[in-house]
Amino acid sequence: xxxxxxxxxxxxxxxxxxxxxxxxxxxxxxxxxxxxxxxxxxxxxxxxxxxxxxxxxxxxxxxxxxxxxxxxxxxxxxxxxxxxxxxxxxxxxxxxxxxxxxxxxxxxxxxxxxxxxxxxxxxxxxxxxxxxxxxxxxxxxxxxxxxxxxxxxxxxxxxxxxxxxxxxxxxxxxxxxxxxxxxxxxxxxxxxxxxxxxxxxxxxxxxxxxxxxxxxxxxxxxxxxxxxxxxxxxxxxxxxxxxxxx
Length: 246
Description:
single chain; alpha/beta; Pectate Lyase C-like; disordered C terminus; Pectin_lyas_fold
């Protein structure tokens, strides 16, 4: 049975990203803004409570990280992977990722054709239109040829395997909503060449545009704002990005 992977930091790498599309319709009904101070207080309270429970020995599975404690204390977490979406705290706590979709198993660490990716690869998974909960068949290191530009309602769940995205471009999130990334080692990112910006392959529109793996980075007006996630394996992040507001 696969074991939960341990990251290189006190907090597991967990990123809950909640984006809004910058279209006239969504601008007219822009998302409710949360009070940053109250959110920070809530996060701090959750962390302190989790640390206290660990120190007092209330939970043998306690880590001091409320997000990890939420799922690690479930002995059947592998059968209940989508419950991770209920573990978030902070600004991104409402992101559901691919919770309501099927499980997609990545079996191939390759990235030979970024424009027409092979089924079974991470790139093929993240560009699908449907909600997906993406997991990995085994330990693997993925060296991307170009930025990994994601579609909405996706979870990349690295639990149970040691998965590294390294040595090439990393992850870009733009014009999408409800993204969860958990348990990945993302490091040693490099600048990419031309990456696909637009609708998924096989549909009209879209094209190749230059991108750079900066943190954060912008790829210009055609693609809008881009948050490129890189060099984050040493940190535990829980964030919500709403995109530039008018």
